[in-house]
Amino acid sequence: MDLLVVGSGFFGLTIAERAAASGRKVTVIDRRPHIGGNAYSEDEATTGIEVHRYGAHLFHTSNPGVWEYVNRFTTFTDYVHRVYTNHKGVVFPLPINLGTINQFFQAAYSPEEAKALVHELAGEFDAKDAANLEEKGIALIGRPLYEAFIRDYTAKQWQTDPKDLPAEVISRLPVRYNYDNRYFNDTWEGLPTDGYTAWLERMADHANIEVKLDTDFFDESQPLHRTATVGQLPIVYTGPVDRYFEYTEGALSWRTLDFEQEVLDVGDFQGTSVMNYADADVPFTRIHEFKHFHPERADRYPADKTVIMREFSRFAAREDEPYYPVNTPEDRAGLVAYRDLAKGEKDVFFGGRLGTYQYLDMHMAIGSALSMWNNQLA
Ligand code: FAD
Ligand code: UDP
Protein backbone atom coordinates (compact mmCIF):
# COMPACT_ATOMS: atom_id res chain seq x y z
CA MET A 1 0.00 0.00 0.00
CA ASP A 2 1.37 3.44 -1.01
CA LEU A 3 -1.38 5.63 0.42
CA LEU A 4 -4.15 5.37 3.01
CA VAL A 5 -7.23 7.53 2.52
CA VAL A 6 -9.55 8.00 5.51
CA GLY A 7 -13.05 8.83 4.26
CA SER A 8 -14.68 7.92 0.93
CA GLY A 9 -16.48 11.22 0.22
CA PHE A 10 -15.71 13.22 -2.92
CA PHE A 11 -12.46 14.50 -1.44
CA GLY A 12 -11.11 11.07 -0.49
CA LEU A 13 -12.29 9.37 -3.70
CA THR A 14 -10.73 12.06 -5.91
CA ILE A 15 -7.36 11.59 -4.18
CA ALA A 16 -7.69 7.79 -4.41
CA GLU A 17 -8.65 7.89 -8.09
CA ARG A 18 -5.72 10.15 -9.02
CA ALA A 19 -3.26 8.06 -7.00
CA ALA A 20 -4.52 4.81 -8.55
CA ALA A 21 -4.38 6.26 -12.07
CA SER A 22 -0.71 7.13 -11.49
CA GLY A 23 0.11 3.56 -10.52
CA ARG A 24 -0.04 3.80 -6.71
CA LYS A 25 -1.81 1.25 -4.55
CA VAL A 26 -4.42 2.92 -2.35
CA THR A 27 -6.65 1.75 0.49
CA VAL A 28 -9.73 3.81 1.32
CA ILE A 29 -11.44 3.26 4.67
CA ASP A 30 -14.80 4.61 5.78
CA ARG A 31 -16.62 4.11 9.02
CA ARG A 32 -20.00 4.11 7.27
CA PRO A 33 -21.39 0.97 5.57
CA HIS A 34 -21.33 2.70 2.14
CA ILE A 35 -18.98 4.85 0.06
CA GLY A 36 -19.55 8.42 -1.04
CA GLY A 37 -19.80 10.44 2.16
CA ASN A 38 -22.70 12.87 2.23
CA ALA A 39 -23.34 12.72 -1.51
CA TYR A 40 -24.48 9.08 -1.24
CA SER A 41 -27.93 8.28 -2.60
CA GLU A 42 -30.05 5.14 -2.84
CA ASP A 43 -33.32 4.09 -4.41
CA GLU A 44 -36.24 4.12 -1.96
CA ALA A 45 -37.24 0.45 -1.61
CA THR A 46 -40.95 0.59 -2.49
CA THR A 47 -40.93 3.22 -5.27
CA GLY A 48 -37.43 3.06 -6.79
CA ILE A 49 -37.17 6.85 -6.47
CA GLU A 50 -33.57 8.02 -5.89
CA VAL A 51 -33.26 9.60 -2.44
CA HIS A 52 -30.24 11.63 -1.32
CA ARG A 53 -29.79 10.18 2.16
CA TYR A 54 -27.86 13.11 3.66
CA GLY A 55 -29.88 15.96 2.14
CA ALA A 56 -30.52 16.99 -1.46
CA HIS A 57 -27.32 17.41 -3.51
CA LEU A 58 -27.27 19.56 -6.65
CA PHE A 59 -24.11 19.58 -8.72
CA HIS A 60 -22.98 22.93 -10.14
CA THR A 61 -19.60 24.43 -11.06
CA SER A 62 -17.89 27.13 -13.09
CA ASN A 63 -14.48 25.43 -12.85
CA PRO A 64 -13.53 23.96 -16.29
CA GLY A 65 -10.97 21.55 -14.76
CA VAL A 66 -13.52 20.12 -12.32
CA TRP A 67 -16.20 19.88 -15.03
CA GLU A 68 -13.87 17.97 -17.34
CA TYR A 69 -12.81 15.67 -14.47
CA VAL A 70 -16.31 14.76 -13.23
CA ASN A 71 -17.47 14.03 -16.79
CA ARG A 72 -15.00 11.13 -16.90
CA PHE A 73 -17.24 9.26 -14.44
CA THR A 74 -20.78 10.34 -15.25
CA THR A 75 -22.92 12.28 -17.66
CA PHE A 76 -25.28 14.93 -16.28
CA THR A 77 -28.95 15.61 -16.92
CA ASP A 78 -30.11 19.08 -17.92
CA TYR A 79 -31.84 19.64 -14.54
CA VAL A 80 -31.87 23.30 -13.50
CA HIS A 81 -32.44 23.97 -9.79
CA ARG A 82 -35.29 26.26 -8.76
CA VAL A 83 -36.57 26.80 -5.23
CA TYR A 84 -39.86 28.26 -4.00
CA THR A 85 -40.82 29.43 -0.53
CA ASN A 86 -44.08 29.31 1.40
CA HIS A 87 -44.75 32.46 3.45
CA LYS A 88 -48.07 32.72 5.30
CA GLY A 89 -49.56 30.07 3.04
CA VAL A 90 -48.59 31.81 -0.22
CA VAL A 91 -45.84 30.50 -2.51
CA PHE A 92 -43.15 32.88 -3.85
CA PRO A 93 -40.15 32.23 -6.15
CA LEU A 94 -36.58 32.29 -4.82
CA PRO A 95 -33.91 33.56 -4.91
CA ILE A 96 -35.48 36.96 -4.39
CA ASN A 97 -36.10 38.35 -7.85
CA LEU A 98 -38.46 40.77 -9.56
CA GLY A 99 -41.18 38.10 -9.50
CA THR A 100 -40.87 37.77 -5.69
CA ILE A 101 -40.86 41.55 -5.19
CA ASN A 102 -43.87 42.20 -7.43
CA GLN A 103 -45.87 39.33 -5.92
CA PHE A 104 -45.03 40.50 -2.38
CA PHE A 105 -46.04 44.12 -3.04
CA GLN A 106 -48.89 43.18 -5.44
CA ALA A 107 -47.26 45.45 -7.99
CA ALA A 108 -45.79 45.56 -11.50
CA TYR A 109 -42.54 47.43 -10.81
CA SER A 110 -39.89 47.70 -13.51
CA PRO A 111 -36.33 46.71 -12.52
CA GLU A 112 -35.43 50.38 -11.85
CA GLU A 113 -38.57 51.03 -9.82
CA ALA A 114 -37.96 47.90 -7.72
CA LYS A 115 -34.33 48.91 -7.06
CA ALA A 116 -35.42 52.37 -5.96
CA LEU A 117 -38.05 50.90 -3.64
CA VAL A 118 -35.63 48.42 -2.05
CA HIS A 119 -33.07 51.19 -1.62
CA GLU A 120 -35.65 53.27 0.20
CA LEU A 121 -36.75 50.29 2.36
CA ALA A 122 -33.15 49.38 3.23
CA GLY A 123 -33.01 52.76 4.99
CA GLU A 124 -30.02 53.09 7.24
CA PHE A 125 -28.12 50.00 6.02
CA ASP A 126 -25.49 49.83 3.29
CA ALA A 127 -24.50 46.36 1.97
CA LYS A 128 -20.78 47.10 1.80
CA ASP A 129 -20.37 47.88 5.51
CA ALA A 130 -22.93 45.40 6.84
CA ALA A 131 -21.48 43.87 10.02
CA ASN A 132 -23.75 40.82 10.29
CA LEU A 133 -26.42 38.80 8.49
CA GLU A 134 -29.30 41.01 9.59
CA GLU A 135 -27.72 44.25 8.38
CA LYS A 136 -26.64 42.60 5.13
CA GLY A 137 -30.11 41.11 4.56
CA ILE A 138 -31.87 44.42 5.15
CA ALA A 139 -29.35 46.28 3.00
CA LEU A 140 -29.86 43.84 0.11
CA ILE A 141 -33.64 43.57 0.01
CA GLY A 142 -35.13 46.03 2.52
CA ARG A 143 -36.75 45.24 5.87
CA PRO A 144 -40.20 43.90 4.76
CA LEU A 145 -38.74 41.28 2.38
CA TYR A 146 -36.00 40.45 4.91
CA GLU A 147 -38.56 39.84 7.64
CA ALA A 148 -40.80 37.75 5.37
CA PHE A 149 -38.24 35.49 3.68
CA ILE A 150 -34.96 35.59 5.59
CA ARG A 151 -35.31 36.37 9.29
CA ASP A 152 -37.35 33.39 10.50
CA TYR A 153 -35.92 30.88 8.03
CA THR A 154 -32.42 31.83 9.16
CA ALA A 155 -33.45 31.58 12.81
CA LYS A 156 -34.71 28.03 12.15
CA GLN A 157 -31.63 27.08 10.15
CA TRP A 158 -29.05 28.47 12.61
CA GLN A 159 -30.86 28.95 15.96
CA THR A 160 -28.63 31.98 16.32
CA ASP A 161 -29.63 35.64 16.34
CA PRO A 162 -29.04 36.90 12.74
CA LYS A 163 -27.10 39.78 14.35
CA ASP A 164 -24.53 37.20 15.51
CA LEU A 165 -24.20 35.44 12.15
CA PRO A 166 -21.59 36.46 9.54
CA ALA A 167 -22.91 38.51 6.61
CA GLU A 168 -21.42 35.96 4.17
CA VAL A 169 -24.08 33.32 4.97
CA ILE A 170 -26.62 35.37 3.07
CA SER A 171 -24.24 36.40 0.28
CA ARG A 172 -24.64 32.88 -1.15
CA LEU A 173 -28.13 33.87 -2.32
CA PRO A 174 -28.29 36.26 -5.27
CA VAL A 175 -30.87 39.09 -5.47
CA ARG A 176 -32.02 39.73 -9.04
CA TYR A 177 -33.94 42.61 -10.59
CA ASN A 178 -35.29 40.46 -13.41
CA TYR A 179 -37.45 37.33 -13.55
CA ASP A 180 -34.53 34.86 -13.62
CA ASN A 181 -35.15 32.36 -10.80
CA ARG A 182 -32.31 29.90 -11.38
CA TYR A 183 -30.95 29.12 -7.93
CA PHE A 184 -27.29 28.85 -9.04
CA ASN A 185 -25.22 31.23 -11.17
CA ASP A 186 -22.72 28.61 -12.35
CA THR A 187 -21.71 27.77 -15.93
CA TRP A 188 -22.54 24.05 -15.57
CA GLU A 189 -25.30 22.41 -13.58
CA GLY A 190 -27.07 19.04 -13.59
CA LEU A 191 -27.62 15.76 -11.79
CA PRO A 192 -25.66 12.55 -12.46
CA THR A 193 -27.69 10.63 -15.05
CA ASP A 194 -27.41 7.24 -13.28
CA GLY A 195 -27.44 8.70 -9.77
CA TYR A 196 -24.76 9.75 -7.28
CA THR A 197 -23.83 6.27 -6.11
CA ALA A 198 -23.07 5.02 -9.64
CA TRP A 199 -20.81 8.06 -10.13
CA LEU A 200 -19.02 7.52 -6.79
CA GLU A 201 -18.58 3.78 -7.47
CA ARG A 202 -17.00 4.50 -10.86
CA MET A 203 -14.43 6.72 -9.17
CA ALA A 204 -13.47 3.86 -6.84
CA ASP A 205 -13.52 1.19 -9.57
CA HIS A 206 -9.79 0.61 -10.18
CA ALA A 207 -7.58 -2.42 -9.60
CA ASN A 208 -5.25 -0.25 -7.47
CA ILE A 209 -8.03 0.84 -5.08
CA GLU A 210 -9.22 -1.26 -2.18
CA VAL A 211 -12.21 0.04 -0.19
CA LYS A 212 -12.90 -1.11 3.38
CA LEU A 213 -16.26 -0.05 4.80
CA ASP A 214 -17.42 -0.13 8.44
CA THR A 215 -13.83 0.70 9.33
CA ASP A 216 -13.14 3.55 11.76
CA PHE A 217 -9.66 5.06 11.73
CA PHE A 218 -9.75 5.41 15.52
CA ASP A 219 -10.90 1.85 16.20
CA GLU A 220 -7.86 0.11 17.67
CA SER A 221 -9.31 -3.31 16.86
CA GLN A 222 -8.91 -2.84 13.11
CA PRO A 223 -5.43 -3.08 11.53
CA LEU A 224 -5.46 0.33 9.76
CA HIS A 225 -6.05 2.38 12.90
CA ARG A 226 -4.21 5.59 13.60
CA THR A 227 -1.42 4.36 15.84
CA ALA A 228 -0.59 1.53 13.42
CA THR A 229 -0.40 3.76 10.35
CA VAL A 230 0.64 7.37 11.12
CA GLY A 231 4.31 7.82 10.23
CA GLN A 232 4.37 4.49 8.34
CA LEU A 233 2.93 5.76 5.02
CA PRO A 234 1.27 8.90 3.63
CA ILE A 235 -2.30 9.36 4.89
CA VAL A 236 -5.04 11.62 3.57
CA TYR A 237 -7.46 12.21 6.43
CA THR A 238 -10.94 13.63 5.64
CA GLY A 239 -12.64 13.05 9.01
CA PRO A 240 -13.20 15.83 11.60
CA VAL A 241 -9.94 17.63 12.43
CA ASP A 242 -10.84 18.12 16.12
CA ARG A 243 -11.53 14.37 16.51
CA TYR A 244 -8.07 13.57 15.10
CA PHE A 245 -6.43 15.65 17.86
CA GLU A 246 -8.71 14.27 20.61
CA TYR A 247 -10.47 17.68 20.95
CA THR A 248 -7.45 19.13 22.79
CA GLU A 249 -8.20 22.62 21.41
CA GLY A 250 -11.94 22.31 22.04
CA ALA A 251 -14.76 20.80 19.98
CA LEU A 252 -15.57 22.77 16.79
CA SER A 253 -19.30 23.46 16.56
CA TRP A 254 -21.48 22.07 13.80
CA ARG A 255 -25.12 22.07 12.83
CA THR A 256 -26.76 18.80 12.05
CA LEU A 257 -29.99 17.96 10.22
CA ASP A 258 -32.79 15.53 10.97
CA PHE A 259 -34.65 14.14 7.99
CA GLU A 260 -38.20 12.82 8.09
CA GLN A 261 -38.92 10.74 5.01
CA GLU A 262 -42.39 9.71 3.89
CA VAL A 263 -43.81 7.77 0.94
CA LEU A 264 -47.15 9.28 -0.09
CA ASP A 265 -49.93 7.81 -2.23
CA VAL A 266 -50.10 10.85 -4.50
CA GLY A 267 -48.41 11.31 -7.86
CA ASP A 268 -47.18 14.81 -7.08
CA PHE A 269 -47.10 16.37 -3.62
CA GLN A 270 -45.80 19.90 -4.24
CA GLY A 271 -45.10 20.24 -7.97
CA THR A 272 -41.41 21.04 -7.51
CA SER A 273 -38.26 19.57 -5.95
CA VAL A 274 -37.68 21.99 -3.03
CA MET A 275 -40.20 24.10 -1.12
CA ASN A 276 -38.82 26.26 1.69
CA TYR A 277 -40.98 27.26 4.66
CA ALA A 278 -40.14 30.82 5.61
CA ASP A 279 -42.22 31.17 8.79
CA ALA A 280 -41.39 30.45 12.42
CA ASP A 281 -44.60 28.47 13.11
CA VAL A 282 -43.53 25.64 10.76
CA PRO A 283 -40.79 23.66 12.53
CA PHE A 284 -38.97 22.35 9.43
CA THR A 285 -36.98 24.51 6.99
CA ARG A 286 -37.92 22.78 3.73
CA ILE A 287 -39.50 19.80 2.00
CA HIS A 288 -37.70 17.91 -0.76
CA GLU A 289 -39.70 15.86 -3.28
CA PHE A 290 -37.18 13.64 -5.00
CA LYS A 291 -39.00 12.59 -8.17
CA HIS A 292 -38.80 16.19 -9.43
CA PHE A 293 -34.99 16.00 -9.58
CA HIS A 294 -35.36 13.51 -12.45
CA PRO A 295 -38.27 14.40 -14.75
CA GLU A 296 -36.53 12.31 -17.43
CA ARG A 297 -37.26 9.19 -15.32
CA ALA A 298 -41.03 9.76 -15.39
CA ASP A 299 -41.65 6.46 -17.21
CA ARG A 300 -39.63 4.56 -14.58
CA TYR A 301 -41.03 6.22 -11.46
CA PRO A 302 -44.54 5.34 -10.21
CA ALA A 303 -47.25 7.79 -11.36
CA ASP A 304 -49.28 7.39 -8.14
CA LYS A 305 -46.57 7.60 -5.46
CA THR A 306 -43.97 10.08 -4.34
CA VAL A 307 -41.20 10.37 -1.70
CA ILE A 308 -40.86 13.54 0.36
CA MET A 309 -38.37 14.51 3.04
CA ARG A 310 -38.82 17.22 5.67
CA GLU A 311 -35.61 18.82 6.88
CA PHE A 312 -35.09 20.01 10.48
CA SER A 313 -31.96 21.82 11.65
CA ARG A 314 -30.33 21.82 15.13
CA PHE A 315 -26.98 22.05 16.94
CA ALA A 316 -24.96 18.85 16.62
CA ALA A 317 -23.97 16.84 19.68
CA ARG A 318 -20.75 14.83 19.42
CA GLU A 319 -22.56 11.66 18.27
CA ASP A 320 -24.54 13.48 15.53
CA GLU A 321 -23.49 13.79 11.88
CA PRO A 322 -21.73 17.16 11.43
CA TYR A 323 -23.24 19.03 8.45
CA TYR A 324 -22.64 22.80 8.53
CA PRO A 325 -19.70 24.47 10.34
CA VAL A 326 -21.12 27.15 12.68
CA ASN A 327 -17.90 29.19 12.61
CA THR A 328 -18.20 31.25 15.79
CA PRO A 329 -15.16 33.33 16.83
CA GLU A 330 -14.21 30.47 19.26
CA ASP A 331 -14.41 27.97 16.38
CA ARG A 332 -12.11 30.11 14.26
CA ALA A 333 -9.56 30.33 17.08
CA GLY A 334 -9.78 26.55 17.59
CA LEU A 335 -9.30 25.96 13.89
CA VAL A 336 -6.11 28.04 13.83
CA ALA A 337 -4.74 25.93 16.70
CA TYR A 338 -5.67 22.68 14.91
CA ARG A 339 -4.02 23.89 11.71
CA ASP A 340 -0.78 24.38 13.65
CA LEU A 341 -1.04 20.89 15.12
CA ALA A 342 -1.77 19.48 11.65
CA LYS A 343 1.46 20.95 10.29
CA GLY A 344 3.34 18.85 12.86
CA GLU A 345 1.78 15.54 11.76
CA LYS A 346 4.33 13.86 9.53
CA ASP A 347 2.85 12.72 6.20
CA VAL A 348 -0.76 13.26 7.25
CA PHE A 349 -2.71 15.51 4.85
CA PHE A 350 -5.98 17.00 6.13
CA GLY A 351 -8.62 17.59 3.47
CA GLY A 352 -12.30 17.94 2.69
CA ARG A 353 -15.20 19.44 4.56
CA LEU A 354 -14.51 17.84 7.96
CA GLY A 355 -10.73 17.81 7.77
CA THR A 356 -10.56 21.57 7.10
CA TYR A 357 -13.79 22.65 8.91
CA GLN A 358 -15.16 24.46 5.88
CA TYR A 359 -18.45 24.42 4.02
CA LEU A 360 -17.42 22.96 0.66
CA ASP A 361 -19.76 22.33 -2.23
CA MET A 362 -19.01 19.12 -4.15
CA HIS A 363 -17.15 20.93 -6.93
CA MET A 364 -15.01 22.68 -4.29
CA ALA A 365 -14.20 19.40 -2.50
CA ILE A 366 -13.22 17.81 -5.83
CA GLY A 367 -11.26 20.92 -6.93
CA SER A 368 -9.31 21.13 -3.69
CA ALA A 369 -8.53 17.38 -3.80
CA LEU A 370 -7.19 17.76 -7.36
CA SER A 371 -5.00 20.67 -6.14
CA MET A 372 -3.74 18.65 -3.17
CA TRP A 373 -2.90 15.76 -5.47
CA ASN A 374 -1.12 17.91 -8.06
CA ASN A 375 0.70 20.23 -5.67
CA GLN A 376 1.54 18.10 -2.64
CA LEU A 377 1.06 14.38 -3.22
CA ALA A 378 1.81 13.46 -6.86
P1 FAD B 1 -17.86 13.87 3.23
O1 FAD B 1 -18.75 13.63 2.08
O2 FAD B 1 -18.46 14.27 4.51
O3 FAD B 1 -16.99 12.54 3.45
C1 FAD B 1 -16.22 12.29 4.60
C2 FAD B 1 -16.19 10.80 4.87
O4 FAD B 1 -15.27 10.51 5.92
C3 FAD B 1 -17.55 10.26 5.33
O5 FAD B 1 -17.95 9.21 4.48
C4 FAD B 1 -17.28 9.76 6.75
O6 FAD B 1 -18.01 8.60 7.10
C5 FAD B 1 -15.78 9.46 6.69
N1 FAD B 1 -15.15 9.48 8.01
C6 FAD B 1 -15.22 10.45 8.96
N2 FAD B 1 -14.53 10.08 10.06
C7 FAD B 1 -14.01 8.84 9.81
C8 FAD B 1 -13.23 7.94 10.55
N3 FAD B 1 -12.84 8.20 11.81
N4 FAD B 1 -12.86 6.77 10.00
C9 FAD B 1 -13.27 6.46 8.73
N5 FAD B 1 -14.02 7.29 7.98
C10 FAD B 1 -14.38 8.46 8.51
N6 FAD B 1 -22.70 20.29 -2.29
C11 FAD B 1 -23.09 20.71 -3.52
O7 FAD B 1 -22.24 20.89 -4.39
N7 FAD B 1 -24.41 20.86 -3.82
C12 FAD B 1 -25.40 20.64 -2.91
O8 FAD B 1 -26.59 20.79 -3.21
C13 FAD B 1 -25.01 20.24 -1.60
N8 FAD B 1 -25.96 20.01 -0.67
C14 FAD B 1 -25.57 19.65 0.58
C15 FAD B 1 -26.54 19.46 1.53
C16 FAD B 1 -26.19 19.08 2.81
C17 FAD B 1 -27.24 18.86 3.83
C18 FAD B 1 -24.81 18.93 3.15
C19 FAD B 1 -24.38 18.56 4.55
C20 FAD B 1 -23.83 19.13 2.20
C21 FAD B 1 -24.18 19.49 0.90
N9 FAD B 1 -23.23 19.67 -0.08
C22 FAD B 1 -23.62 20.07 -1.33
C23 FAD B 1 -21.79 19.50 0.21
C24 FAD B 1 -21.25 18.08 -0.10
O9 FAD B 1 -21.90 17.15 0.72
C25 FAD B 1 -19.74 18.11 0.17
O10 FAD B 1 -19.12 18.94 -0.76
C26 FAD B 1 -19.08 16.75 0.07
O11 FAD B 1 -19.72 15.85 0.91
C27 FAD B 1 -17.63 16.90 0.50
O12 FAD B 1 -16.97 15.70 0.48
P2 FAD B 1 -15.92 15.32 1.59
O13 FAD B 1 -15.22 14.13 1.04
O14 FAD B 1 -15.10 16.48 1.98
O15 FAD B 1 -16.77 14.97 2.91
N1 UDP C 1 -31.99 31.67 3.42
C1 UDP C 1 -33.15 32.26 3.91
N2 UDP C 1 -34.36 31.92 3.36
C2 UDP C 1 -34.48 31.01 2.36
C3 UDP C 1 -33.31 30.41 1.86
C4 UDP C 1 -32.09 30.75 2.43
O1 UDP C 1 -33.09 33.06 4.83
O2 UDP C 1 -35.61 30.74 1.92
C5 UDP C 1 -30.71 32.06 4.04
C6 UDP C 1 -30.39 31.19 5.27
O3 UDP C 1 -29.69 31.99 6.20
C7 UDP C 1 -29.48 30.13 4.68
C8 UDP C 1 -28.69 30.93 3.63
O4 UDP C 1 -29.64 31.87 3.12
O5 UDP C 1 -28.64 29.56 5.67
C9 UDP C 1 -28.10 30.08 2.51
O6 UDP C 1 -29.14 29.42 1.84
P1 UDP C 1 -28.90 28.11 0.96
O7 UDP C 1 -30.17 27.73 0.30
O8 UDP C 1 -27.70 28.32 0.11
O9 UDP C 1 -28.56 27.06 2.10
P2 UDP C 1 -28.23 25.51 2.04
O10 UDP C 1 -28.87 24.91 0.84
O11 UDP C 1 -26.74 25.40 2.07
O12 UDP C 1 -28.86 25.04 3.31
TrEMBL record:
Keyword Flavoprotein: yes
Database matches in Pfam families: GLF, NAD_binding_8
InterPro entries (UniProt xref): UDP-GALP_mutase (IPR004379), UDP-GalPyranose_mutase_C (IPR015899)
EC class: isomerase
Domain UDP-galactopyranose mutase C-terminal positions: 148-359
EC number: 5.4.99.9
Transmembrane segments: none
Cofactor(s) required for function per UniProt: FAD
Keywords for the protein's UniProt record, in alphabetical order: FAD, Flavoprotein, Isomerase
Domain of life of the organism encoding this protein: Bacteria
Signal peptide: none
One MF annotation (Gene Ontology) recorded for this entry: UDP-galactopyranose mutase activity
Family per record: Belongs to the UDP-galactopyranose/dTDP-fucopyranose mutase family.
Protein name: UDP-galactopyranose mutase
Annotated gene: glf
